[in-house]
Structures are given as structure tokens and as C-alpha cells.
Amino acid sequence: MSARSGLDPHTGSSRTGTRRVDFGRRVLVLRRGRVALRLDLRSVVVCSVLVLVVACMAVLALMTGSYQLSPGQVISSLTGGTTGLVHDIVVEWRLPRVLAALVFGAALGVSGALFQSTMRNPLADPYIIGFSQGSYTGALIVILLVNGTYWQLAGGALIGGTVTAVAVYLLAYRQGVQGFRLIVVGIGISAMLASLNTWLILKADLDEAMAAATWGAGSLNGVNSAQVLFGAVCIAVLLLLAAMSSRSMRQLEVGDDAAAAQGVRVSATRLGLIVLGVALTATVTAASGPIAFISLLAPQIGRRLTRTAGITLAPAALVGALLCLAADYLAQHVAPTPLPVGIITVILGGGYLGWLLIIEARRRL
User: Taking the model in full, what pTM does it have?
Assistant: First the structure.
């Protein structure tokens, strides 16, 4: 890949004259034939550290429970070196929940990155702007009115989230969609759907209402291996599509006019990215209920760790996986009584949202 005139392709530094000007970003270039891949060195280091931290957190979660295990026992069970009770505890009982937290957290992190990058607003979160509520409404209708299976629940969540996204998009469309207008419309739709969800629960039978309310808090208690496998396959496909759309996403970050000048079909691309984000959120909601605020926190934490100008998908996915796994660990093993993971993420996300609003208010003074 050729460098711009006067710039070193490996460091981003000027080669003109005898004085060397460093712009502060180093890149790692991987070449194979005529193909060259440029990776920001800090992002690579941050992602590598996050992978290590996530792995350690996963081992800790597999160790902890009513039957305590050592790191060696966990690793031996995962590699097939242990059989019997220890193997059953690690692989059959605890591993599906840990994998669910990792996969669902990564999906929510990427979903938030898509929304925040597309709308160029740190408050663009599917939970805040109503898309998670729409998925919850669709799944709730299936639970209370149809008493459907998991696959029907997944379809209801996807349909509910998609219908909500289309409604918000159409109501916010005025010769294009501005991020701020879409967020305001989404907040209004979210409030209406929250009222509808409450009404549906109040009208349901007591047992169904209690189950729906518990599920609506966002919980990994009922997740089994089949749901994790199905969710992982769907999420893997959606993450691949998101990675293929990352170039268009970065072009939208510089503004609609600049993106259109580079050949991007702005409205169609933005709508496609929104649909991807909704599908990721709906897939998680179908399995575990709406887990709030991870999609708000993960992209911003990832951007601050990598110190990039825009939001990138890989750090957001890894931070999302870490947040979901850590929140579930706190909910199960640190709280006085086991709690749904969504309660912990609401506490963390609410604190972050308040801090973010204070920072934005101070910037405008």
C-alpha cells in the first residue's frame, strides 16, 4: 500500500528534510503479495490485552460457584484432560453461561458501535432510542399471547425490533436522517413501548407476568447450549457483515456530504447499518432479554482505550464481552443474592450516562 507524499508508511511521520515530525500514531503493516493490511499499533496492543483480560475473567467465572475449582482444573477440563464431576461442572454447567455472556456482550458492543458511529452521537444506544424496547415488545407478545417456543421468541424479537427501527427511521426522516432527530424520536417511541410492555404484563396471568418481568430484566439464567449455539451462529454472520461494512461506517463519520462525495449511498448505507445493529440487539434479546447499556458503554470505552478519532468494531466487541461477563459475575457471586445481569448493567450504565451528560454540559458552558 503506497504512502501519501512525504509520509513514512510505517509510522505516519514526515520524511521531508532532516527534521522528523511524529504525528503520534504508529501502524503495523502486514503484507502478502500485493495485499497490505494496515493496523493501528495501539489498537492491536489494546485488543491483545483485552483478549487476555477476557480469558482470565472467563477462567475466574468457570472456577467460582458452590463447588470451587482451581485454574488448573478448569483448563484441564476445557482441554479434555479431566473427566467426571469436574468436567461436567465446567463444560456442561458453567461454560454455556460464560460463552453466552461473551457472545452476547460482543454483539451488544458492536451494535452500539454501529449506532454511535452512524449517527455520530455517543448517546446513540439501541436501549435508549427504543430498538431494544421494540425487540422486548415482540418477544413479550410471543411469551404472553402465544406462549411460543424459543424460535418463535427469536422471531418475535427480531420482528419487533425491525418494526420499531423502521417506524423511528420514517418518523425521523426529513430529506435525510439526522442523528439527533432520530435519537429524540427514538426516546419517544421507547417511552410508548415501555408503557405498552407494562400494560401487557399487568394484563397477563400472575405466573406468566412474573416470568416475563424477570426475563425482561435481562438474565442469563435460562440460557442453554442450544440457544448459545444458535445465537453464536447468527451473531457470527452479523459480525462478519458489520466488519464488511466498516469502511462505509468510517466514511459516514466524516459527514454525509463527504461520504456522498466518495461514492457512498448515504441513506441506504445508514439504513443497512441500523438494520445490522437491530438484528444484533434482537438476537441477544431473544435469548436473554434486554441487557441494557452495554451497547452504550462498550464503544466509548473502546474508543478511549485505543485513542482513535472514530469508533472501531473490534475494541467495542471485546469491551462488550468483558463488561457482560464481569456484570454477570458480580450479579451471581458478589451481590447479596443472585440478580439478573441486566440490573448490574443498568447500575453501571446509569452512572456512566450521568457522567457523560455532565461532561457534555460542561463543554457547552
Answer: 0.85
